[in-house]
TrEMBL record:
Keywords: Metal-binding, Zinc
Gene3D superfamilies reported in the protein's UniProt record: Hypothetical protein, domain 2
Protein name as it appears in the record: DNA-3-methyladenine glycosylase I
Biological-process GO terms, alphabetical: base-excision repair
Record: residues binding Zn(2+): 4, 17, 175, 179
Xref: Pfam families: Adenine_glyco
TM region(s), chain numbering: none
Length: 186
């Protein structure tokens, strides 16, 4: 069996690959964390964002959705200055914005998880890629989620970001077929 090659020699990336990537999560706080980090990644490498993860957790109180929904512009500016996060102010403001919108979705669907997982009938999509090169950057489901989230005023939720997000929360298993972490090999 050969593992996915994208983590390379990075222990941090390997740990994420082995313990989180493509593993189903229904925890709204974790899902919000992944939405935030995937949005921060836009235009950057995942390793850069992952290396800043602990500072994100400190800055956003472990991604407490209620707390993040009430952050002021001044608080967001202070986070930008004091923490090792992606410094793009629009990306930081999207944390507050998306938290506000998640609270609305929780009210409507019972949880953010319920809203998202309905797109895959509450079961992860298990792909069987022979190589990582076969894996798409987006699909029709990520396009649907992106379109609906944009209508709901979410930010940094394009279809490519949403596909990575779906992988991050386990809505899709894109480990290559020979990877021991593929759902069918565990």
């Amino acid at each position: 069996m050969s593992e996915c090659s994208w983590p390379g020699n990075s222990e941090m990336m390997k740990k994420y690959h082995d313990n989180e990537w493509c593993i189903p999560s229904h925890d709204d706080t974790y899902i919000f964390e992944m939405l935030t980090l995937e949005g921060a990644q836009s235009g950057l490498s995942w390793s850069i964002v992952l290396s800043k993860r602990e500072d994100y957790r400190k800055a956003f109180k472990n991604f407490d959705i209620e707390y993040c929904s009430k952050l002021s512009d001044e608080a967001l500016e202070k986070i930008r200055e004091d923490y090792n996060v992606v410094k793009n102010l629009l990306k930081l403001k999207s944390v507050r914005n998306n938290a506000i919108e998640i609270i609305k979705i929780q009210s409507e669907f019972g949880s953010f998880s319920n809203y998202l997982w309905k797109y895959v009938d509450f079961k992860p999509l298990i792909n069987n890629w022979e190589s990582e090169a076969s894996m798409p950057a987006q699909d029709s489901i990520s396009e649907q989620i992106s379109k609906d989230l944009k209508k709901r005023n979410f930010k940094f939720v394009g279809p490519v970001t949403m596909y990575s997000f779906m992988q991050a929360i386990g809505m899709v298993d894109d480990h290559k077929r020979t990877c021991p972490f593929h759902s069918l090999n565990r």
